[in-house]
């Protein structure tokens, strides 16, 4: 995520509401402590740092998931990042059972560009994003296709957690790269060659130089 937010790592911020004290430790966890003298007062984890919430190509919040169990699921918390004069936990609610919502104010997000996703990516992933923009502009992919590519980019960058099915798919893809027969290999090679030809044409139409190599 945004490097300047790492200044918050290792710090914790608390908020007290009625008999509960909430504590948010960025990039670590969210906890809740019941401040009563009951023998079974609740004290537990509402979520562990998991992934970002990204909307309109901007980091809008942090998801803390896999907290203490709650009936059939785990407690989870979404932390909304909003501009404020100082670093403080400003508001806590429970919009649905065992799903909490925290509002964290910080001057670190006041700059209009402070939460943009693009600048935090590697050059290779930025290039992938640029290519997706171009494809969308040329109407070669749909809006849905574009969003799918963006999701893959965010997963690759580690900003979003890939689903378990995705991980299994990745593993099986690795295995299926071996071809059972020479014919199958030739067929695949032919298809890839055709694809490269089309892409070269597309690149030249946009005046983009193509650097090939002998092993393409």
Automatic annotation (TrEMBL):
Q: Which Pfam families match?
A: PRKCSH
Entry-linked Gene3D superfamilies:
Mannose-6-phosphate receptor binding domain
Q: Where in the cell is it found?
A: Golgi apparatus; Secreted
**Which Gene Ontology molecular function entries are recorded, alphabetically?**
transferase activity
Keyword set for this entry? Disulfide bond, Glycoprotein, Golgi apparatus, Secreted, Signal, Transferase
Domain of life here? Eukaryota
Q: Which PROSITE patterns match?
A: DMAP1_BIND, MRH
PANTHER family per the record?
Answer: N-ACETYLGLUCOSAMINE-1-PHOSPHOTRANSFERASE SUBUNIT GAMMA (PTHR12630:SF6), N-LINKED OLIGOSACCHARIDE PROCESSING (PTHR12630)
Task: Quote the function comment for this protein.
Answer: Non-catalytic subunit of the N-acetylglucosamine-1-phosphotransferase complex, an enzyme that catalyzes the formation of mannose 6-phosphate (M6P) markers on high mannose type oligosaccharides in the Golgi apparatus. Binds and presents the high mannose glycans of the acceptor to the catalytic alpha and beta subunits (GNPTAB). Enhances the rate of N-acetylglucosamine-1-phosphate transfer to the oligosaccharides of acid hydrolase acceptors.
Q: What is this protein called?
A: N-acetylglucosamine-1-phosphotransferase subunit gamma
Taxonomic path: Eukaryota, Metazoa, Chordata, Craniata, Vertebrata
């Amino acid at each position: 995520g945004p490097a300047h937010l790492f200044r918050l790592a290792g710090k914790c911020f608390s908020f007290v509401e009625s008999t509960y004290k909430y504590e948010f430790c960025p990039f670590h966890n969210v906890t809740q402590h019941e401040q009563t003298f009951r023998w079974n007062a609740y004290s537990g984890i509402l979520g562990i740092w998991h992934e970002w919430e990204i909307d309109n190509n901007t980091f809008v919040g942090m998801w803390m998931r896999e907290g203490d169990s709650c009936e059939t699921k785990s407690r989870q918390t979404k932390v909304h990042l909003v501009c404020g004069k100082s670093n403080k936990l400003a508001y806590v609610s429970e919009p649905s059972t065992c799903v909490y919502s925290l509002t964290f104010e910080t001057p670190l997000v006041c700059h209009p560009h402070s939460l943009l996703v693009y600048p935090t990516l590697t050059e290779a992933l930025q290039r992938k994003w640029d290519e997706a923009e171009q494809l969308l502009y040329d109407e070669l992919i749909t809006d849905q296709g574009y969003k799918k590519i963006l999701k893959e980019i965010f997963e690759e960058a580690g900003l979003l957690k890939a689903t378990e099915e995705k991980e299994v798919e990745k593993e099986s893809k690795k295995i299926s790269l071996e071809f059972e027969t020479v014919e199958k290999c030739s067929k695949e090679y032919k298809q890839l060659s055709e694809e490269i030809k089309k892409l070269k044409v597309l690149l030249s139409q946009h005046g983009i130089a193509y650097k090939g190599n002998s092993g393409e």
